[in-house]
Amino acid sequence: MSAETNRELSLQAKLTYPGFELDVDLQLELSGVTGLFGPSGGGKTTLLRIIAGLDRNANAQVSFAGEAWQTSKNFVPAHRRPAGFVFQDARLFSHLTVRGNLQFALTRSRGSGDGISFAEVVSTMKLAPLMDRDVENLSGGERQRVAIARTLLTNPRLLLMDEPLAALDAEHKREILPYIEALPERFGIPAIYVSHAVGEMARLADNVIVLEGGRVTAIDSATSILNREALQPSSLPFEPVAILTVSVIEHLAGNYLTRVNHHGQHMTVPYIDGRVAGESARL
Question: Which residues contact 173 (CB under 8 A, 6 or more apart)?
Answer without folding.
Answer: 141, 165
